């Protein structure tokens, strides 16, 4: 496992530590700690036997390549900017052959197109993340499952809004927080720090069985305490 200090910070008592979930990268598969946790959750906690078609909101990462070995009919995408329409495929984009653009709040897919949807540290960059939940619910089959990771603040009952969109652009309610972005050197603005009310937001979007599974265990390479993988299922018809 490779550890670096690119996203390091200070903890309680002014201790200095790496961003464990973003580092501890495997030299063989290239997955960091949070990516490995999502893969482990899919293998151990989700019944994948009926999964015929899966969607993941990334396409240029080691995680996408790993998930492609698990799901032969995997569809991936990136958010490439507001000048594109969902479903656009950019040819030879930044030396990559084909990259699909999708806006999670306005997906181009048909209703009930996927049995599984996966996002990894994406929703904090979506101003209207509740609308993204509704869209992902729409494109899942009955019984289909959404699995995702987010930077999660377990001490917050209510999600803390850092920024929002107004008629004239971004409104900052707290100092800007920029996260790394695999398709942009400028990074991505964090619009919210999620708290426990996200489970209720999922239920209001139509999901059932919404829960958070805590992952931590250095013996399996799951670092960064506490870290959670979230999951919610689209209900089956009666």
Automatic annotation (TrEMBL):
Keyword line: Methyltransferase, Transferase
The UniProt record lists the keyword Transferase: yes
One GO MF term attached to the UniProt entry: methyltransferase activity
Domain Methyltransferase type: 97-148
The UniProt record lists the keyword Transferase: yes
UniProt-listed Gene3D superfamilies: Vaccinia Virus protein VP39
Residues annotated as signal peptide: none
BP GO terms, sorted: methylation
Protein's UniProt name: Class I SAM-dependent methyltransferase
């Amino acid at each position: 496992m490779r550890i670096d200090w690119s996203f390091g910070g200070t903890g309680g008592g002014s201790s200095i530590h790496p961003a464990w979930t973003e580092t501890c990268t495997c030299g063989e598969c290239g997955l960091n700690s949070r990516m490995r946790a999502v893969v482990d959750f899919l293998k151990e906690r989700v019944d994948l036997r009926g999964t015929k078609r899966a969607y993941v909101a990334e396409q240029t990462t080691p995680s996408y390549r790993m998930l492609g070995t698990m799901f032969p009919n995997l569809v991936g995408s990136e958010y490439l900017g507001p000048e594109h329409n969902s479903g656009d495929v950019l040819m030879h984009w930044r030396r990559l052959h084909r990259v699909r653009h999708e806006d999670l709040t306005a997906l181009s897919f048909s209703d009930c197109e996927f049995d599984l949807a996966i996002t990894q540290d994406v929703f904090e960059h979506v101003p209207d993340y509740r609308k993204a939940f509704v869209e992902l619910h729409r494109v899942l089959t009955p019984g289909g499952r959404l699995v995702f990771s987010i930077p999660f603040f377990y001490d917050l009952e209510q999600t803390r809004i850092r920024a929002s969109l107004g008629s004239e652009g971004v409104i900052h309610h707290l100092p800007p927080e920029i996260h790394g972005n695999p398709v942009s050197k400028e990074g991505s603005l964090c619009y919210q720090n999620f708290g426990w009310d996200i489970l209720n937001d999922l239920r209001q979007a139509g999901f059932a069985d919404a829960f958070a599974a805590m992952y931590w265990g250095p013996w399996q390479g799951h670092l960064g305490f506490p870290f959670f993988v979230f999951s919610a299922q689209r209900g089956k018809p009666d």
